[in-house]
Known about the structure:
9-stranded mixed sheet; alpha/beta; 3-stranded antiparallel sheet; globular
Amino acid sequence: xxxxxxxxxxxxxxxxxxxxxxxxxxxxxxxxxxxxxxxxxxxxxxxxxxxxxxxxxxxxxxxxxxxxxxxxxxxxxxxxxxxxxxxxxxxxxxxxxxxxxxxxxxxxxxxxxxxxxxxxxxxxxxxxxxxxxxxxxxxxxxxxxxxxxxxxxxxxxxxxxxxxxxxxxxxxxxxxxxxxxxxxxxxxxxxxxxxxxxxxxxxxxxxxxxxxxxxxxxxxxxxxxxxxxxxxxxxxxxxxxxxxxxxxxxxxxxxxxxxxxxxxxxxxxxxxxxxxxxxxxxxxxxxxxxxxxxxxxxxxxxxxxxxxxxxxxxxxxxxxxxxxxxxxxxxxxxxxxxxxxxxxxxxxxxxxxxxxxxx
Length: 359
């Protein structure tokens, strides 16, 4: 039982620039709207996390909801699993999903950051992991041929062995042209992942993915609507390229439905949607039980720690949506994420930058 208590929670909203706008087959994310969370304890330890609203339209609501949930944990012991269970139980009638799950996940992440700091341990070590370098890929956008090639070449020069590009152009021939140009720029040994961002129907997904088969694509991500596991299963059974899903699972209850139906080859939970650190641990156990290689989605500061304790750990996604306001100890060397021994998740806020983008 922890003898540390939660005294205050600060919640701020910022809308920060991205180095490259994220173009997808279904829309554009041109800024990074974030909710920043600071959990203060009576032991003078502050746990930090951030969550991603995807659209500035949602930012104010997500901030307000996070503040409201934070009020429920004041004066509680610093016990992340117990607090997570309390929040899940409290909102069973409403449904602990959507923005509620995202806000709760952000709180959970900050609690684990504080908990590991209170033990003066990096998060991976608190969770029982060992320090290791995590295989990473560089995650790109629907960039068009020339920018896709430039970014791929740059990633390869930094030692990345994998590059993900978003596709779903007006014709599959354009998808193929981008993939070939990436391979030409980055080299024959680069792993190329592609992401359709749910932009296809089942027949189109089958046709397009089969057309990519000779291009050496490593995985195809979210070819159809994320909520339609049956559609994804139909696609998976009629293509040979592995199908990657999971970034939109809202809790392990969504994950188990996909796994039971056999709708995926690879798993990619998002820590903010799966339930924070507590939810990730549950997801890792499911991935192991179903023998699914498990990669991360966004939130690289936390995800790198969690992959060290994931039995089927696959790839870390390097896509730094918070670099404008986060000073992270996580480094990348020769295409691998290298954790530091700093306590917690290993990052601080860039307060001077936050002041520029506060909402």
